[in-house]
């Protein structure tokens, strides 16, 4: 299932309602949950900030997810940190979301997600989520980085500059 965000007169809320309706039809036995932010390992967040990564693939064993809005914050998590300690790095503008079985992921999916191969992508996903079955459904978010601007806190801009200098 593929869903692209459209500019509609009613706005993003109507767009998200359409997506929730499609998810209920496509996956009637699986609950849908809203994603409100992206937390990534610091090395993956750095790839986003360097524009080397324009998708993120997410998995929930008990649900399919959808974005809570058209712009979601990106948080970086250093090794050993708990999710609550993640640093907000930037905002991501979402362009679309796709739902695929793990077995249907492609080399192009891996490259867009900042990996060198499908095998490397799946190994990384399994390091986060545990063993994935070929029929497991993953959610692929397509996004672009929103430039850091004066509206962001100084500590966020500093942390971003610090990560990019690595």
Automatic annotation (TrEMBL):
<dbReference type="InterPro" id="IPR015947">
    <property type="entry name" value="PUA-like_sf"/>
</dbReference>
<dbReference type="InterPro" id="IPR007374">
    <property type="entry name" value="ASCH_domain"/>
</dbReference>
<dbReference type="Pfam" id="PF04266">
    <property type="entry name" value="ASCH"/>
</dbReference>
<feature type="domain" description="ASCH">
    <location>
        <begin position="38"/>
        <end position="147"/>
    </location>
</feature>
<protein>
    <submittedName>
        <fullName>ASCH domain-containing protein</fullName>
    </submittedName>
</protein>
């Amino acid at each position: 299932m593929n869903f692209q965000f459209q500019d509609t007169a009613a706005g993003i809320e109507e767009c998200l309602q359409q997506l929730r309706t499609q998810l209920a039809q496509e996956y009637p036995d699986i609950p849908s949950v809203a994603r409100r932010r992206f937390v990534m390992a610091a090395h993956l967040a750095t790839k986003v900030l360097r524009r080397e990564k324009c998708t993120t693939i997410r998995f929930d064993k008990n649900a399919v997810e959808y974005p809570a809005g058209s712009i979601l914050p990106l948080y970086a998590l250093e090794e050993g940190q708990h999710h609550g300690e993640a640093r907000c790095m930037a905002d991501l503008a979402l362009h679309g979301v796709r739902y695929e079985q793990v077995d249907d992921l492609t080399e192009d999916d891996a490259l867009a997600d900042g990996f060198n191969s499908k095998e490397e992508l799946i190994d990384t996903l399994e390091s986060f989520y545990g063993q994935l079955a070929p029929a497991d459904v993953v959610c692929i978010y397509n996004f672009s980085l929103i430039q850091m601007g004066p509206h962001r806190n100084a500590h966020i801009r500093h942390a971003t500059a610090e990560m990019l200098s690595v």
